Amino acid sequence: MAHSQATAIINVHREGALLTPTLRSLILAKKVAAEAGFTVRFDVVADRPDARTLYVVEQFAEHINRVQTVEYGNLTMSRDHGITNSETDLVFLHDGDDLYSSNWYTALWKQIVSGAFDDNTVYHTRLFARFGALYDVCKIPDSTSIAFDPYSLLVDWYFSNKCVFNRKLVQDYPIPPIDKTRGLGNEDWSWSADTIAAGVRHTFLPDTICFYRVKPSHLSLGAVKGVMQSRSPLYETAHIARQSRIRCREPLALLPPNAGLDMKALSKWPQEPLGDTFDHEMKVQSQFEPLLTQFPRRGHTGKTGVSEKKMYPQLGRFYRRVRPLLGDGDLDIVWMPKHLNFPKDQLLDWMAEAMALSSEKLTMPPLLVFFEDMDDPDIVVKLDRWNAIAINIARLDASGIYDDFQKTRFLMRFLMQNTVRHSVDFGSPTLGRLMRDFPAAYSHFAPNHIGVLTHRTCDYYDQGLATAVTTAVALARQRQVRTPMIPFSNAVTAELINPFLQVLTGDQDLLAAADAVNHARFAKALEPGTLPAPGATAGPDILSHLFTRARQLEPVGAAERELGGIIPRGPVLDILSPGAVVNQYFQTASSWLLDKNRDKSLVIPSNIFFRVAGRDQAMYLPGNDPAHSLARFLDMIAQNPDASFPVAVTVRSSDMEIAEDIANAGSPLDVYTKLAVDYRDKIMIAQQSVVMPEVL
Amino acid sequence: MQKPARPFDARWDLALWNLSPSSRDRLDGFMARPEFDTLAESDNPPNDWSDRLFVETQDQNMTEFLDLGILHGTFAAALLQGDADGTSVAGGRMASSKAYADETGIPGNLYDTCLEMTHKRSGPPLLLAARSAKVQWKSSGSLLLVDLINRVQAELEKGPISDIIILPSLGVGGAERVGYWHYRLLKEGLGRNPLLLLADHPRTEAKYANLRAMTLVDDAEGPFIKGRGPDILLQCISALVSRIAPETVHVVQSFPGFLWLESLAANLMPRSGAKHIASFFCAHTHGDGTVDGYHLKIPYLEGILDNYVVDNRHFVNEIRTLNALPESTCSTLDYPVEQIQPIWPSEPMGDRPGRVLWAARFDHQKQPQIVPQIAALMPDVEFHMYGTQVMGDTSFDAENLPPNVFFHGPFSNFFALPIARMDLYLNTAFFEGLPQALAEASSVGLPVVASAVGGVPEIIGAKNGRLVHNVSDPAEYATAIRELLDPSVNARARAATLKMMIEKRSFEVFCQKGAQWFESILAK
Q1: CA distance B441 to chain A (A)
Q2: Could you give the 3-state DSSP secondary structure of residue B359?
Q3: Which residue has the higher pLDDT, B14 or B245?
Q4: Which candidate from A216, A615, A639 shows the least CB-CB separation from B231?
Q5: How far is A219 from chain B (nearest CA, A)?
Q6: pLDDT score, position B172
Q7: How buried is residue B68: exposed, middle or buried, by Cβ count under 10 Å (0-12/13-18/19+)?
Q8: Taking residues B23-32, what's their average pLDDT?
Q9: What beta strand segments (E) does B387-435 contain?
Q10: Which member of A251, A524, A652, B458 has the greatest number of CB atoms within 10 A?
Q11: Of A302, A279, A294, A285, whose CA–CA distance to A100 is shortest?
């Protein structure tokens, strides 16, 4: 027999009490396996553990063969460490907070004894039952099943690291490392794509269950933003082409796995009951983790039907069609919001030319345009004039080929499989969302982001403008270098004072050039044969110079990062939170109010803008009863802990103590609590004045 | 009497209805009802509901919806609509209301969507709700945080506050009782200045009226602050704790209190310098086998808790086993009773039928349905049952009882029962921590026959009562009852009970042990 024992590698970090049910569950499985004649060693790899977690490990010392303390601070590396140092070739991988059915080890033993174990296969549990913040159960598919579409891996995770395999697989196909700085995670997801592309099979052991803990969502606030799976050969043009060639040429009987990629998804197949094992194991494991008793109440018992995890065959089909058009090399991307659908062609003309001119190679790689136009019936539009592929996000959304929460993950794949030369944003809400979902990955995989503002004026209420600036500021915060921003209009340039933006302007006026093009176009329509007006061809030239300059990024200065605080302004002091901007009217009004009302000491603006989940909101504070207005506002702050609220308070220069008291208060909630409680009789609200957070 | 209006926030109910394609008509129907405008002034809410408990028996999502304020409006709608059979919910209990169950039957396929929306929820109402001008948005009315801060300042002007005990309310429950004993320990035993914070509900029983207590929200707000969700609750507690800066904060069975502790442990809230203590009570096993209780939150609390305190050794061992908690962080305290004062039988035993007192909730946990079975085995003994259903998770047919079982309905407190007429107290629960009723029965010297579950063996032994090990066996109960109804055995048991209570459960003993416990926490 090739394998007579295995090692369970249990990676721990700071699980604390959560590790207890895991270890108790695994010890039971180990005992059951031992009774069947199969030895499973326990290797705990503790990566920068805390004392509490080590204490829990110590409580189970008699069952643990080896504890290795490492200092990687990286799950992939500590897992690799465990695999490399394992005394057996067969390795089970475990995290420190999940539970397993008591037959998990025995099921592998049966596979070995029956001679069915394959060294080129990764074995998972048959059922994957999530518990904690949510309760659901799905079946793990077999990657060689004809109805499994590997391209569903673009947006969903099918094969977790709760698995067992011969460790030579990791030598041949290393697990892609987690890299937070590049926004890469989901190492098991990435590894499944890499291994499936290489022909490794992922399948399940019958009747086995992984109970996977999902932490309560209300405790996940402020958690690390989304991470992407790594670049993978599975998604490359070459792989798609090879698969497609094989499907076309090979006789049916010789077709490799997944030949029927266009078959109905496994998730659409009839459901099967979870089975008695589920009921039994739920009871057994709930001795260790009482939360598992919730499953029947949430509709999951042995009699409940369950499908394989949902798959996205249409999405795969879409990707396989678009990917070859883009190739795997350089790529330029333009993000076009819907308000620019009318001048889209003209802007693309300029962008394509400017990007080519600013490139040292004077080449034009494929241009990928994301636009949003419900009036256009097509999802993919080939724009040969610019060697461009345009994807209509509005239509793509409406097609329902992915679920809404997977949208940005899918789009991000286009950035990751190519080398993005330029990513030009005109204020696209889709890019705004992508930036919020995957800040580190976008920052890394789109190193040349340029914001372009076509607006004539700086309108506080313009969503397009706000979106472009928000994205740029978020990017600058992520990278700690200023984000280049090219306004067409000098009026916008004048208002766009923000420490996170590097506003680029040329000697010539882009707006004038754009106007000249328009003028020429209409003149041409009226009188064919008219020559272009002077300046009509200047746009790309100006832009290309600005694009070149955009590559020399200036760091965000330490002082600028902390901008805000107490700022003297003549006879008054402004107290501003970092990045907060007030309109000019507030400055005039606050000085005037302090001058006229000697019994009052502080002035705040009446319109306070704030941002919740990327959406701008505002609250109006009536001035007739400032204490009441502030009390209402305080409740609004308390109800929106994730929002960023700006602070703008003006006091007289002689009231430095008040200014310092407010400036040192800490969070906006603390500041407004002070204003609403301690200074409620001293405060005035300047009507028609505005404070905005961070942008504009 | 004008009862406080039931708080509700219809925004999320409307959103949920709006999500369901089949619900539009019903939604429009509700919106058109004139009562919807004036619901907040309704003076007829049911008087004995326990909606959170009820909802807990349905589904965890439902609990979450309720906590986030979603279901209050749905309930209000059910209240208005009445049952299909014409019985208004207002006249009965929501636990048994078909209308309520129907109303809250959110389609399964919407759970995740709704939850997601709920989690992403930010203050302002949804568009649909914003358009419906007829709905009275109660939650935009009164002010919370500033009001609370002003009340805290007023409280601080009365005198310093050294410790905060966060309780759900000052109602009749055992958890409230534990909070009360900690208050007295700090105040009388240690001379400190504790404050009770009633975080879930402003209800205060008359007997607790003299304690120094603050409600998180005023009477009109009610639990969970009118559906404004937990965020603002957390900010309120945080503001209160930061203003008071107490040396210890002790959370006892309060939902917002535990939520706040979780947020502290997850670094979502600023930490204070206080020591944090939490009381845990036995796990609640629902009729469907689901285990519930705040102890399930321990893995998410351990970063902040300095001490886990439990009222019985059995359960402290359970939470230690489940979580591998170090012994040094877990404590057991034997809580006292108000007074230890024997009540002797008003009629001598022997010349009359024996009388057994059963007084508890008519819920799955307490196993009321076994009492008629025991009674059938001993027709010469009277069984007097007091109580009412709270969870609605078991059925009890009060109409068809053996002639020796007497069903008397609800009772307000243990000492209002005709204790002097009774010979022993019977407890038939499937699971227990350390039931308050047993301590109270023992405080008057009443011998006890009880199922040997949880912490019960810590207070009941062979001298002062009988333990039943096979908790579902009527015959074993009958044997135990028969033994204790022997007059001489009964008299010895009464004496032993009183002796045990004086030795272990007097206030003085509690203060002595409690002081050591508290000082050990401060010294850490």
Answers
A1: 32
A2: strand
A3: B245
A4: A639
A5: 6
A6: 77
A7: buried
A8: 46
A9: 405-407, 424-427
A10: A652
A11: A285
Chain centroid to CA A216 = 19
For residue B288, the chain A residues in CB contact (below 8 A) are 296-297
CA distances from A454 to A347, A694, B92 (A): 10, 21, 65
Query: Angle at Cα B398 formed by Cα B397 and Cα B401, nearest 5°?
Result: 90
Give the gap in angstroms from C-alpha B404 to the nearest C-alpha of chain A. Answer: 38
CA dihedral A184, A186, A187, A190 (to 10 degrees): -90
Strand-strand pairing, B354-359 and B424-427: parallel
Give the closest residue to B277 by CA, choosing from B241, B212, B201, B331.
Answer: B331
Q: Which chain A residue has its CA at the smallest distance from B270's CA?
A: A667
Measured in whole angstroms, the distance separating CA B305 from the mean position of its chain's CA atoms is 22
ipTM here: 0.84
Q: B338 burial class (0-12, 13-18, 19+ CB within 10 angstroms)?
A: middle
d(CA A662, CA A673) in angstroms, rounded, equals 10
Over residues B39-71, the pLDDT tens digits come to 333 333 322 223 333 333 334 444 444 444 444
Long-range contacts of B458-463 (CB under 8 A, 24+ apart): B458/B312, B458/B313, B458/B314, B458/B434, B459/B434, B459/B500, B461/B500, B463/B492, B463/B493, B463/B496, B463/B500
Q: What percent of chain B has pLDDT over 90?
A: 48
Distance of CA A406 to the CA centre of its chain: 10
State the pLDDT at residue B141.
Answer: 44
| Contact criterion met (CB below 8 Å) for B349 and B377 | no
- What are the structure tokens assigned to A364, written together? 């034009």
Cβ proximity of B465 and B450 under 8 Å: yes
Nearest Cα residue to B426 out of B496, B489, B358: B358
Question: How many separate helices (H) and strands (E) can be counted in chain B?
Answer: 19, 15
pLDDT at A534 > cutoff 80? no
Whether B109 has its CB under 8 Å from any CB of chain A: the answer is no
Pick the residue from chain B with its C-alpha nearest to A217. Answer: B119
pLDDT-derived band at B91 (thresholds 50, 70, 90) equals: very low
The more confidently predicted of residues B201 and B77 is B201
pLDDT of A120-150, one tens digit each?
Answer: 999 999 999 999 988 999 999 999 888 888 9
Strands B194-198 and A648-652, by their bridges, are unpaired
Backbone dihedral region of B454: left (phi > 0), alpha (psi from -120 to 50 degrees) or beta?
left
Is residue A502 within 8 Å of A482, Cβ to Cβ?
Answer: yes
